[in-house]
Amino acid sequence: MLGCQQGSNSYRRPPVYNFKTDTTPLMPRSITRLAKEANIKIRLMPAGSRQRRGSKRLRPSFITIHSTANHSPTSTAMQHSRALCRGAFTNRSWHFTVDQFMVVQNLPLHETGWHAGSSAGNNNSIGIEMCECESTGHNHFRTWDRAAKLTAVLMKRYGVRMRYVVPHYHWTGKNCPAPLMSNGRPGPKWMWFLSRIDYYYRCINNGVSNR
Questions:
Q1: Buried b / exposed e along 44-76 (16+ C-beta atoms within 10 A)
Q2: How far lies 88's CA from each of 43, 79, 96, in Å?
Q3: CA-CA distances (angstroms) from residue 171 to 87, 166, 190?
Q4: CB contact set of 109 (below 8 Å; sequence gap of 6+)
Q5: What is the pLDDT of residues 92-134, one digit of tens each?
Q6: Which residues contact 205 (CB under 8 A, 6 or more apart)?
Q7: Please, which residues have CB within 8 angstroms of residue 59's CB and are 6 or more apart in sequence?
Q8: Rounded to 10 degrees, what is the CA torsion of 107, 206, 167, 116?
Q9: pLDDT digits (tens, 9 = 90+) for 49-83
Q10: 190 CB-side CA count, 13 A
């Protein structure tokens, strides 16, 4: 699933992606309302767990998007939360898991996680995992759209610019989040995802983007 190797704490500046602006009419709402639409459930990993004992203070300047690469029909956001809480993912942790129905918060947002495959990514970013479960009636678009809402909320709360919303690929070159990559790299599908984030951000920011 996720690599957790540690490297330099320095990072390269992300490229600017010139995605097309979503022209869907804006539906203005508060950040609280958009967070409610994302349906965030807080279920934190035990404070004394191995994955949290080595955490550092996080002041996020990036948001890193992942996908779980777990296609089991039962691999929902809540199931991933249960696995994290019982220590099933050795040396792996991330802040949010998203599926088509909800967002589950796994770590406090002032703590670093082990998700980016590099010290720079772990020490500077909030990690969001999108579920890839394959079950009858599962709608991946709803998962991605819910992740876009969550990302817009976090951007607004922490002052993160769109340029610093990055795929796992940015830190290590890994093909992740695979469903939104094109030939293993950010392409049209990633641009579409950024446009959805930008749309929801404008909905809570008086129509103004934060590219």
A1: bbeeeeebbeebeebebebbbbbbbebeeeebb
A2: 16, 11, 16
A3: 25, 9, 16
A4: 58, 60, 95, 126
A5: 999 999 999 999 999 999 999 999 999 999 999 999 999 998 8
A6: 156
A7: 124
A8: -30
A9: 888 988 999 999 999 999 999 999 889 999 999 99
A10: 27
